[in-house]
């Protein structure tokens, strides 16, 4: 029994440690842009990094935040199998959103969810990206795009990979919704800023 649980524990720890690397904070400081936590919403994710005006640093943050989920998932799958890979995805998401190094205040998990889905089931990941782009371009709201993508992802996970992945993706989606709770409040009030807008929001 312990031999069965140990790989899952290792996968969770690996995912958390990788996910908790604050690339947004590291890159903005390296680029001389200051502490990203003092800018805009104070979030360490790519959306807030974009508020610095440096698109290259924001793009690099997005890619690295996705890769910090991909890496532990692929490693866990190679050594311990598919169940461990799914656990690593959850660990990476928790690490990004609640990094111990930053007082458990991290990002909102969109890039990490993209990386997780692409690594766990690439068709689901591509559909997530497609839905995000569709909503982002038509409604001009990053948060609404993320929430819509996350809400539909479990359905596609079930269709393409079955019940186990759907359960994991549902968990990730619920965490993403929790991280976007302030955005949801603004969406309901009609005060959520649009992409490129001047309002400071998470």
UniProtKB/TrEMBL annotation:
Transmembrane segments: 6-27, 57-80, 86-104, 111-135, 155-178
Pathway: Lipid metabolism; phospholipid metabolism
Enzyme Commission identifier(s): 2.3.1.275
Domain of life: Bacteria
Gene Ontology biological-process annotations: phospholipid biosynthetic process
InterPro entries per UniProt: G3P_acylTferase_PlsY
Sample GO molecular function, one term: acyl-phosphate glycerol-3-phosphate acyltransferase activity
Catalytic activity line of the entry: an acyl phosphate + sn-glycerol 3-phosphate = a 1-acyl-sn-glycero-3-phosphate + phosphate
GO cellular component: plasma membrane
The keyword Transmembrane belongs to this UniProt entry's keyword annotation: yes
Keywords: Acyltransferase, Cell membrane, Lipid biosynthesis, Lipid metabolism, Membrane, Phospholipid biosynthesis, Phospholipid metabolism, Transferase, Transmembrane, Transmembrane helix
Entry membrane topology: Multi-pass membrane protein
Location of the protein in the cell: Cell membrane
Xref: NCBIfam families: glycerol-3-phosphate 1-O-acyltransferase PlsY (TIGR00023)
Similarity annotation: Belongs to the PlsY family.
PANTHER family: GLYCEROL-3-PHOSPHATE ACYLTRANSFERASE-RELATED (PTHR30309:SF0), INNER MEMBRANE PROTEIN YGIH (PTHR30309)
Physiological role: Catalyzes the transfer of an acyl group from acyl-phosphate (acyl-PO(4)) to glycerol-3-phosphate (G3P) to form lysophosphatidic acid (LPA). This enzyme utilizes acyl-phosphate as fatty acyl donor, but not acyl-CoA or acyl-ACP.
Subunit structure: Probably interacts with PlsX.
Protein name, UniProt field: Glycerol-3-phosphate acyltransferase
Organism: Devosia lucknowensis
